[in-house]
């Protein structure tokens, strides 16, 4: 990272993108290795689950159609009913396994990228072997932060659903229900985006500071102040790109019956390439935003203390720095 820390606070939208691309290009070898080991499998699993889920769902739909044609109570009806029950169980087990595996790879990828950029910031020697030895020790802290964020999201969604149900019961027949519903939905989406941005920054905090779980979330909430709109705009840009890749893959690969196999393969490969580059860029950007926010709040990070922190991780026992070690007094 070529910039001085006090200069990072002045980075705007394009400055954050430019700094991210510079880091990726300058350290392209190590980021290529991380991408091959973690991010490409993550991207492949994401796209493959769309294809597999559709195949299972199409088979379930076919079984349901046959079941509808058979007279209830017959032997064939019971056989088809049992088959549909098994297919539903396979479908939900597959979905559960997918969410577990995708979460593990995402947390591992986040650990690797954040640790790598921290090494760049402190001018430490970076090797792929060192990074992969650190990742399993760091991702446990990320998991705790994710679980806390998941609990917060669950409560948030539950409150939203209960509020809508209450209004349906009380004012569902009135003309005021529709505008109130849409206003509430917009407020809900705004809150959801805000919580997602805070969680992403909390993931970086969990790696680089002595904070994880709800403590990291609260630290992230305070750090993001002043740079919130930039973070939200980047969030929308990255997620819009993700939706576009997902849409192209679903239309031309999952539902591309009219295309030849080699064309579907090329489109699928292009979607995979676009997705893993997008994931890598997103992880680098969220780490850069952390340093920008620290600089904006004049929480200058002691490079030597952070370097010692990273060295302790590499030597085996993960001993996170205390807050007084990782940051100097406010300027």
Could you give the count of β-strands?
Answer: 0
Tell me the radius of gyration: 24 Å
Q: By helix and strand content, what is the structural category?
A: mainly alpha
Helical percent range?
over 70%
Q: Rough shape?
A: globular
Q: Can you tell me the residue ranges where pLDDT is under 50 for at least 5 consecutive residues?
A: 317-331
Helical stretch count? 11
Query: How much of the sequence is in beta strands?
Result: under 5%
Q: What is the string of SSEs from the N terminus onward?
A: HHHHHHHHHHH
Biggest sheet record: none
Distance between the termini: 21 Å
Summed over residues and divided by their number, the pLDDT gives a mean of: 83
Account of the protein in words:
The protein has 331 residues and is mainly α. Helices cover 82% and strands 0% of the residues. Helix 4 (75-121) crosses helix 5 (128-171) and helix 4 crosses helix 9 (261-296). The chain is globular, with a radius of gyration of 24 Å. The protein starts with a helix and ends in a 5-residue tail after the last helix. Mean pLDDT is 83; it is low at 317-331.
């Amino acid at each position: 990272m070529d910039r001085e820390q006090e200069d990072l606070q002045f980075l705007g939208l394009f400055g954050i993108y430019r700094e991210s691309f510079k880091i990726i290009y300058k350290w392209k070898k190590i980021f290529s290795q991380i991408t091959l080991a973690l991010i490409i499998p993550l991207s492949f699993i994401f796209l493959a689950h769309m294809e597999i889920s559709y195949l299972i769902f199409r088979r379930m739909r076919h079984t349901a159609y046959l079941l509808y044609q058979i007279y209830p109570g017959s032997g064939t009806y019971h056989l088809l009913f049992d088959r549909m029950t098994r297919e539903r169980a396979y479908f939900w087990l597959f979905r559960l396994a997918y969410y577990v595996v995708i979460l593990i790879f995402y947390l591992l990828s986040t650990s690797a990228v954040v640790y790598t950029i921290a090494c760049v910031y402190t001018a430490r020697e970076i090797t792929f072997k060192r990074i992969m030895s650190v990742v399993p020790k760091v991702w446990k802290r990320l998991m705790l932060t994710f679980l806390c964020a998941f609990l917060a999201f669950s409560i948030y969604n539950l409150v939203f659903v209960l509020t809508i149900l209450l209004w349906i019961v009380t004012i569902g027949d009135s003309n005021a229900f529709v505008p109130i519903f849409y206003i509430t939905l917009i407020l809900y989406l705004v809150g959801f985006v805000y919580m997602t941005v805070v969680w992403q920054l909390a993931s970086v905090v969990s790696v680089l500071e002595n904070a994880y779980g709800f403590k990291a979330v609260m630290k992230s909430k305070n750090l993001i102040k002043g740079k919130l709109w930039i973070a939200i705009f980047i969030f929308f840009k990255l997620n819009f790109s993700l939706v576009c890749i997902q849409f192209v893959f679903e239309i031309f690969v999952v539902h591309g019956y009219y295309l030849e196999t080699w064309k579907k393969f090329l489109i699928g490969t292009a979607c995979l390439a676009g997705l893993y580059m997008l994931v890598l860029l997103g992880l680098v950007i969220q780490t850069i935003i952390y340093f920008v926010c620290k600089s904006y709040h004049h929480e200058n990070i002691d490079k030597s203390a952070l370097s010692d922190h990273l060295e302790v991780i590499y030597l085996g026992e993960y001993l996170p720095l205390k807050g007084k070690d990782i940051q100097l007094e406010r300027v």
